[in-house]
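Take just one protein record:
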Amino acid sequence: MKTIKAKNGEWVNLNNHLTTVTKLEGKDFAVAVATNTGILKASLKHLEGILAPSPEFVELTEKAKPYQGKTDKKSEKAMQKLEKDNAKIIEARKKQIDDANKLLAEDLEIELMPISTDIYPDKITAEQVTGLLIIK
């Protein structure tokens, strides 16, 4: 095992990337990927749902759909009214996103199983390797 320090956002990216290589064959590689996936899942629990919009914001986006991308005056006025009438909901969403970005920028140390190049499967792409470099 190896302790690695990285940003929460980098850990999320690694966790997402590991799911893309789960079908590659090779016993040692598979064990390392599965082990690390489990560790990351437990280590990143504090990030679950941090960007999930509130029910009020979801409702507001539904109301705004008919006007999005339209440039006629009626649509623009309707959108402005929605924004004005729901300023608190919009500001709460902006704050939620800002808070999530701050959390994703924080450092976190996690102990993972290194995945060295000698256990990489023969049929692995450069893109797949690039996503694993943080845990080599």
In short: The helical segments are 8-20, 27-43, 55-64, 73-85, 87-104, 126-132. The chain has a mean pLDDT of 95.
